[in-house]
Write a structure and sequence with these properties.
The protein is α/β, with parallel strands linked by helices and 401 residues long. The chain is built from twelve helices and 21 strands. The protein has two domains: 322 residues, Alpha-Beta Barrel (TIM Barrel); 65 residues, 2-Layer Sandwich (Alpha-Beta Plaits), CATH 3.30.70.20.
Length: 401
C-alpha cells in the first residue's frame, strides 16, 4: 500500500486530503467527524472580524443546488456537474468562542489530524484583533481568507477586493506573518486578472503555503419573479463544475510558486484528488462532496487512491505531483489541421435519434431511410462535436493519416 503522507507548510499529514473551511468544520464536534472519516486535517470555519460580525449569522435556508438531477432509482448516484449556490459565510462564533472551540477540537482529535485555523477581516483594523484572538490556539497553521466571493457586499475592503490586488494581499500576509507563530497560508481568489502575481507577492511576504482558490460571486435569477432565487443578494458559486477551471489555475501556479500549494474548489470524485496533485497540489481540500455525499466518501476516496497508486506502481503522492507537465506543451505547439481526421458512425450502434445531423455546421451528416446517420468524410471538418453529443456512443473519430 502506498504511503499517502505529505509535508505541507511544515506539517506532517497522514494523507493530502483536508476538510475545507466550511460547514463540515463549523465546530469541534464536526471537525472530529472529519478526522474520524479519514481526513489528514481540517481547515476551520473562518473566524470573521468584528467589522463583518453580521456574517456570523446565517440565512435559512442558505444552500441551493443548481443543475442537480440525481437519478430517482439511485439517489446516491449524484450528477457530477452541478453547482453549489450558497450564502453561508463565516463561523458563527465570536473571537473567544472560536478560540475555545479550537481547544476543544484539539482535545477531541489529539494528534490524529492537523488543525489549520482560518481568519477573515472586513477592514485592516480587524487583522490585529483577529491575530490577537487566535495567537494562543493549539493550531498547526493559519489560513487567511483573502477571497470570500460575496463579502464585498458586506464590506468594501473584504473578500475578493483584498485577494485581487497583489500589493494589498502581500501587505496583509506580511502583517499576519509578523504577528503570528504559525505558518501562514493565504487563500486566494480566482476573481483577479493574475492569481500567479498575487501568489508570488504573498510568497515574498512570507507565506508558508498558498491555497488556490475560493469560489466565485454569482447571481441566480428567477425570471417569473424578476428576483434572485432563495435569497435577495449575490452568493457564492462553487461545486464540481469548477474542477477544470481550478486545475488550470493550479497548473499556472505550480511552476512559479515554490511554497506548497493547496487545491480547493471542484473536488467530487477520488480521481479529482489525483488530478489536483498531478497539477501541482500538495494538499487537496473538499467541501461540496461532504455536504452532499456525507463523510463516508472520504474513506472511499482514500481506498480508491491507494488502489490506483498500487496498480500504477506509485509509492507516494510526491511521485505524481506535477506529473501532468510531462505531457503538456504550449498551445502554439499543438498539432493543427491534421489530415484524415473525421467522424465515423458505427451503424449497428446508431439509434437514429437525429441529433448529429441537426448540429453539424459542415453539412457532413445525413440520415438514411431508417434514420441512421451517414457522415461524408470529405465534408467533415473533424471538430468532434457529434462524437461528443451522441447519446449511444455510436460515433468515433478516425486517426490522422
Amino acid at each position: 500500500m502506498a504511503d499517502l503522507s505529505v509535508s505541507y507548510a511544515g506539517i506532517k499529514l497522514k494523507n493530502p486530503l483536508l476538510a475545507a473551511s466550511a460547514t463540515e468544520t463549523k465546530d469541534a464536534k464536526a471537525m472530529k467527524k472529519c478526522i474520524d472519516a479519514g481526513f489528514g486535517g481540517v481547515v476551520v470555519k473562518s473566524l470573521y472580524g468584528s467589522s463583518i460580525a453580521i456574517s456570523r449569522k446565517w440565512h435559512r435556508p442558505r444552500f441551493q443546488l443548481l443543475n442537480w438531477h440525481p437519478r430517482s432509482t439511485n439517489p446516491l448516484k449524484a450528477p457530477d456537474g452541478f453547482i453549489l449556490y450558497s450564502i453561508e459565510q463565516g463561523s458563527q462564533f465570536d473571537y473567544k468562542e472560536w478560540a475555545d472551540d479550537i481547544r476543544r477540537t484539539r482535545d477531541l482529535i489529539g494528534d490524529r489530524g492537523a488543525i489549520i485555523g482560518s481568519i477573515m477581516a472586513g477592514s485592516m483594523s480587524d487583522w490585529p484583533e483577529l491575530c490577537e484572538a487566535v495567537k494562543d490556539c493549539p493550531m498547526d497553521a493559519l489560513e487567511i481568507d483573502l477571497s470570500c466571493p460575496h463579502m464585498k457586499e458586506v464590506h468594501a475592503e473584504s473578500g475578493v477586493e483584498l485577494g485581487a490586488d497583489p500589493d494589498h494581499a502581500a501587505e496583509i500576509v506580511k502583517m499576519v506573518v509578523e504577528a503570528m507563530k504559525f505558518p501562514i497560508i493565504p487563500k486566494l481568489t480566482p476573481q483577479t486578472a493574475n492569481m500567479v502575481q498575487v501568489a508570488r507577492r504573498c510568497e515574498e511576504a512570507g507565506a508558508a503555503a498558498i491555497t488556490s482558490h475560493n469560489r466565485m460571486m454569482s447571481l441566480n435569477i428567477d425570471i417569473d419573479r424578476a428576483s434572485p432565487t432563495v435569497w435577495p443578494c449575490y452568493a457564492g458559486w462553487g461545486g464540481p463544475w469548477m474542477l477544470q477551471y481550478s486545475l488550470a489555475w493550479m497548473a499556472k501556479l505550480y511552476p512559479v510558486v515554490k511554497v506548497p500549494l493547496s487545491f480547493t474548489s471542484g473536488i467530487w470524485r477520488w480521481q479529482d484528488n489525483v488530478s489536483a496533485i498531478m497539477a501541482g497540489a500538495t494538499t487537496v481540500q473538499s467541501c461540496t462532496a461532504i455536504l452532499v455525499k456525507g463523510f463516508d466518501v472520504v474513506k472511499e476516496w482514500l481506498d480508491s487512491i491507494n488502489d490506483w497508486m498500487d496498480k500504477k506502481g506509485y509509492s507516494s503522492p510526491d511521485e505524481i505531483r506535477g506529473a501532468v507537465f510531462e505531457n503538456m506543451i504550449p498551445a502554439s505547439e499543438i498539432p493543427r489541421h491534421q489530415p484524415g481526421v473525421h467522424a465515423e458512425v458505427d451503424k449497428g450502434e446508431c439509434t437514429g435519434c437525429g441529433w448529429c445531423p441537426k448540429i453539424c455546421l459542415y453539412d457532413a451528416i445525413t440520415e438514411d431511410e431508417d434514420g441512421i446517420a451517414n457522415i461524408d468524410p470529405e465534408k467533415c471538418d473533424g471538430c468532434g462535436m457529434c462524437w461528443q453529443v451522441c447519446p449511444s456512443k455510436a460515433i468515433s473519430m478516425s486517426k490522422p493519416s
